[in-house]
Amino acid sequence: MLRKKENDSIYIIREVASCYRRPAILWSVGKDSTALLHLSRKSFLGNVPFPVIHIDTASKFPQMYAFRDYWAKQWQLDLIVARNQEALDAGIHCCMDDLMTCCQHLKTGALQQVVQKHGFDALLVGIRRDEHGIRAKERYFSPRGADFKWDYKNQPVELLGITSRIIQEGQHVRVHPLLHWTELDIWCYTQLEQIPVNELYLAKSGKRYRSLGCQPATEPIDSSADTVEAVIKELLETHRSERAGRAQDKESAARMQRLRALGYM
After folding, report:
1. Helix boundaries (H) for 127-237
2. 160 exposed, middle or buried (CB, 10 Å; 0-12, 13-18, 19+)?
3. d(CA 187, CA 235)
4. Read out DSSP for 95-118?
5. Residues 94-116: what's their mean pLDDT?
6. Which of 142, 153, 157, 158 is in Cβ range 3.0-4.6 Å of 174 for a Cys bridge?
């Protein structure tokens, strides 16, 4: 089953290379986007032929920056670190009191700036349907308007494996090669392929992070899973939501949908 999912994802990634003029990959340095990078490397004989974008809110964990810099060098990535410096200079920062504002400016705003600067027409993104009810509404190929907004009520039909790749002038498309994967799939694949894992995912002193985001808005869970094998075992036994430790995912579905409609990842 994992190999079938791997093959389907590789097919999508290669389609992006053949159908779009200027694609890029979003890399949060979390487990999903790192698995997506691994799949991209497998798709092209060990190389990633696209620029790799890291959206830096200036509030990530130090371990995330260290992981990014080390593996970007090891994998010889064309890494672009994107920050909305104007928003940061204006005093906007990751804030538990107003997640809508900080996510919109520091994530969506930074992404919009880098897309416009480099003329990207397709973005490979490592989201999965099982992460959140709103993300379950996505398509494998999901167009975004010139204003960066997602019209979730008017999406292309995907039927029997046929997906729409057509975009209009000024648009870009979000491509989701991992949409059909689950959290457990990602960890089993990580173990199978020996994909590097950020140390934050593995338990220390009875705590670990199940999902990574900005440091002020991300909480660890109680866990003794200090290896990938132990994480897999834990997932088979837990009933807790994967992103329960991410503050923005505790927002109402309506607020999360509004964030994504405005261009949030």
Report:
1. 183-193, 228-237
2. exposed
3. 9
4. -TT-HHHHIIIIIIIHHHHHHHHH
5. 82
6. 142
pTM metric for this prediction: 0.85
Range of weakest confidence among 140-149, 194-203, 209-218: 140-149
pLDDT at 260 > cutoff 50: no
83 in Cβ contact with 58 (< 8 Å): yes
* Phi, psi (rounded to 5 degrees) for 5: -65, -40
Domains, the chain: 2-181+251-261 (3.40.50.620), 184-249 (no CATH)
Q: Give mean pLDDT, residues 135-162.
A: 68
pLDDT tens for 78-98 read 999 999 999 999 988 876 566
Handedness of CA 53, 79, 228, 1 (dihedral sign): positive
Q: To the nearest 10°, the Cα dihedral for 120, 41, 17, 147?
A: -30
CA distance 149 to 262: 5
Q: What is the pLDDT of residue 150?
A: 63
